Amino acid sequence: MELSVKENFPLKKYNTFGVEVFAKQYIEIHSEEALAALFTAQGALIQQPSLILGGGSNILFTRDFEGLVIHITIPGIRHTISGNAVTVTAGAGVIWNELVWYCVAHQFAGIENLALIPGTVGAAPVQNIGAYGVELKDVFERCRVFDTQRGEFSTFDKEACRFSYRESYFKREAKGRYIITEVTLQLSLTPVVNTSYGAIGAELAKRGIADATIKDIADVVSAIRTEKLPNPSTIGNAGSFFKNPIVPVQYLTRLQSTFPDTHFVFYPAGPDQVKIAAGWLIEQCGWKGKRVGDAGTWKNQALVLVNHKNASGSAIYDLSERIIQDVKARFGIVLEREVNIL
Ligand code: EPU
């Protein structure tokens, strides 16, 4: 099989921050066969540091990549229906939002709240993507992976993926070992629309919609995201840059007594824990809409760091460090980055 490896390849178009960096080598992989061929025939190539790239929407390059970038572009969506249950399988290279709209068009319910999340299907399990009250793990059935240590394909079920909030086995313990080639979801022909997230209910009411269809939900979620979040094709960003920190309830109570006039924004997060809105913490520290050169935080959502034009990855990283220090100094909470730093 012909494998076309490109040298000194520009990655600006392949990371949604739009940071100008180069990969020593770059290859596009359209099929499982090509992936297996890369691993066996070109075994030496894969020995060097390699990076699996999907949509490049959760990564910040702070320097050139001195190895092989493997860009997964495996296409295809197929489904089977059994009673009310629908099984949908998509190639890792499919754009996530295209899968959402394929499902909405076919009346397959379950991922409409995840409309307009940037990135590819293959990246979705890595950080258990989530938005507006739904996480991938709620509909995930299994994924096919290529094990770069053993050189073979296998299947991971939901339990094996060890999903939690913006985390999985692929992002933690097994980082860099497996390449996801396709993902299978369990969806339904009988929608249970999830409007639990405040902004969805408010937007539906504004549009006078009482009995929302899954298309209504996908439309409303897309509208909310478009209004709140910068479009990566015009302003570089990678969505939420930090995770929302989870702290013990007692810690929040202590903060509330230290800052009696402050109305903290938080949600319950399991027994005795709360998730505090990181965007709110950042805004409290005066960082919302600020910029340092071309690096900044978004005017409508301080949790999103942006590249206004020509910021380097390290300038964006330095800004994130300043934000972490300020939030720590004021609230004693250390924000954790959600985006992968390279
Ligand atoms: N808030 C502020 N100031 C800000 C930003 C937010 O006060 O600058 C407050 C808002 O007023 C709101 C609360 O914080 O009451 C939560 O904000 P939002 O609804 O925007 O959600 P989030 O917690 O900041 C999370 C996800 C997003 C996802 C939204 C909607 C994380 C790290 N982020 O953001 O996911 O779209 O909920 O479900 O969990 C992503 O992961 O890249 C991402 C965009």
Detailed description of the structure:
Helix 5 packs across helix 6 (214-228). The protein is α+β, with helices and mostly antiparallel strands and 342 residues long. The protein folds into 3 domains: 6-72, Uridine Diphospho-n-acetylenolpyruvylglucosamine Reductase, domain 2, CATH 3.30.43.10; 77-227, Uridine Diphospho-n-acetylenolpyruvylglucosamine Reductase, domain 3, CATH 3.30.465; 233-341, UDP-N-acetylenolpyruvoylglucosamine reductase, C-terminal domain (Uridine Diphospho-n-acetylenolpyruvylglucosamine Reductase, domain 1, Alpha-Beta Complex), CATH 3.90.78.10. The chain is globular and about 65 Å long. It is built from 9 helices and 20 strands. It binds uridine-diphosphate-2(N-acetylglucosaminyl) butyric acid.
Structure, briefly:
It is built from nine helices and 20 strands. By secondary structure, the protein is an alpha+beta fold.
List keywords for this structure.
binds uridine-diphosphate-2(N-acetylglucosaminyl) butyric acid; Uridine Diphospho-n-acetylenolpyruvylglucosamine Reductase, domain 3; alpha+beta; four-stranded mixed sheet; Uridine Diphospho-n-acetylenolpyruvylglucosamine Reductase, domain 2
Pattern of helices and strands? EEHHEEEEEHEEEEHEHHEEHEEHEEEHE
Number of helices: 9
Note the overall shape. Answer: globular
CATH class of the largest domain: Alpha Beta
Poorly predicted runs of 5 or more residues: none
Distance between the amino and carboxyl termini: 31 Å
What does the main sheet amount to?
5 strands, antiparallel
Number of strands: 20
Q: Whole-number radius of gyration?
A: 21 Å
**What helical percentage do the residues reach?**
25-40%
Strand arrangement within the widest β-sheet reads: 6-7-12-10-11
What is the CATH topology of the largest domain? Answer: Uridine Diphospho-n-acetylenolpyruvylglucosamine Reductase, domain 3
Q: Name the quaternary structure.
A: single chain
State mean pLDDT (0 to 100 scale).
Answer: 94
Strand content: 25-35%
CATH architecture of the largest domain: 2-Layer Sandwich
Helices and strands: which structural class? alpha+beta
Bound molecules: uridine-diphosphate-2(N-acetylglucosaminyl) butyric acid
For the record, the count of structural domains works out to 3
